[in-house]
């Protein structure tokens, strides 16, 4: 009877893959076999900007000679990975089912990857996490800031504190998918404001985002934080374009 229980449960209440929605067997990943195979870990990367490279290197063509305001950026998966589909759902089409399966990210942050091992070397220097904020109008529509939700899971794994009251997004920017770096920079001009500079003075801060594309958002936030007294700013995103 105990052996039949999982079969009957799947038959009556089939579970769906978080990434592609296909019916799949119950497992700790909440993903089907195809989407598990399509998880693309970043193994070789630029230590500075976090972009995928052929070998681990200190700088790359994406960040060479650029005026970057952050110290290091860490990213776990390629943008083409099935994990990105989950992040987009969390941002644009959330559901109770998806929200109930977010332990997948606890497992991801607890995994032993090269990027997380490198990040772990910096954790002791980080004072707290600031999730990339969203405008109050978008927060009202969505009901939550997905970067903050995921940052809280990350913070539990690495024993850090999340502070969501320091950085505010005052400009309701348009969605920036498809925009090139100069367009993004223009759109983000004067978008963020530090509400309490005393909390960040001489602090090392990790800026947490779900998806990183051009890196403009992180660089813009890092510039603002440093202008307001932050010592060093690090970046972290779950998914990143190459």
Count the domains. Answer: 1
Q: pLDDT under 50 segments (min length 5)?
A: 1-13
> What is the ordering of alpha helices and beta strands?
HEEHEHHHHEHHEHEEHE
Number of helices: 10
What is the C-level CATH assignment? Alpha Beta
The amount of beta strand, in percent, is: 15-25%
The CATH architecture name reads: 3-Layer(aba) Sandwich
Please provide the count of β strands.
Answer: 8
- Trace the largest sheet across and list its strands: 3-8-7-4
Report the helical percentage.
Answer: 25-40%
Terminal residue distance: 49 Å
Helix/strand structural class: alpha/beta
Shape: globular
**Over all CA atoms, what is the radius of gyration?**
19 Å
- Largest β sheet strand count, sense and barrel closure: 4 strands, parallel
Summed over residues and divided by their number, the pLDDT gives a mean of: 89
Q: Could you tell me the CATH topology label.
A: Rossmann fold
What does this protein look like?
The chain has helices spanning 4-12, 33-37, 82-92, 96-99, 103-109, 114-123, 136-142, 146-158, 181-187, 216-227, and strands at residues 15-16, 23-24, 72-78, 128-131, 167-169, 192-194, 204-212, 232-240. By secondary structure, it is of the alpha/beta class. The protein has one domain (14-240): Rossmann fold, CATH 3.40.50. The strands form three sheets. The protein has a four-stranded parallel sheet with strand order 3-8-7-4. Strand 7 (204-212), helix 10 and strand 8 (232-240) form a beta-alpha-beta unit.
């Amino acid at each position: 009877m105990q052996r039949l229980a999982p079969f009957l449960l799947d038959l009556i209440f089939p579970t769906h893959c978080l990434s592609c929605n296909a019916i799949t067997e119950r497992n700790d990943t909440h993903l089907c076999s195809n989407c598990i195979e399509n998880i693309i870990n970043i193994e070789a990367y630029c230590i500075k900007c976090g972009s995928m490279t052929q070998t681990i290197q200190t700088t790359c063509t994406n960040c060479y000679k650029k005026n970057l305001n952050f110290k290091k950026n860490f990213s776990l998966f390629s943008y083409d990975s099935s994990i990105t589909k989950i992040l987009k759902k969390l941002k644009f089409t959330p559901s109770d089912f998806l929200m109930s399966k977010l332990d997948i990210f606890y497992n991801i942050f607890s995994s032993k990857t090269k990027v997380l091992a490198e990040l772990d070397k910096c954790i002791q220097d980080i004072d707290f996490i600031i999730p990339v904020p969203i405008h109050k109008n978008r927060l009202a529509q969505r009901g939550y800031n997905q970067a903050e939700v995921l940052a809280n899971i990350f913070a539990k794994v690495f024993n850090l504190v999340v502070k969501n009251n320091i950085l505010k997004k005052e400009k309701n920017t348009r969605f920036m998918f498809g925009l090139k770096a100069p367009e993004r920079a223009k759109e983000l001009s004067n978008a963020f404001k530090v509400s309490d500079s005393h909390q960040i003075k001489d602090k090392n801060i990790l800026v947490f985002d779900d998806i990183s594309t051009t890196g403009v958002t992180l660089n813009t936030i890092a510039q603002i934080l440093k202008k307001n007294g932050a010592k060093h700013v690090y970046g972290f995103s779950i998914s990143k374009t190459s």
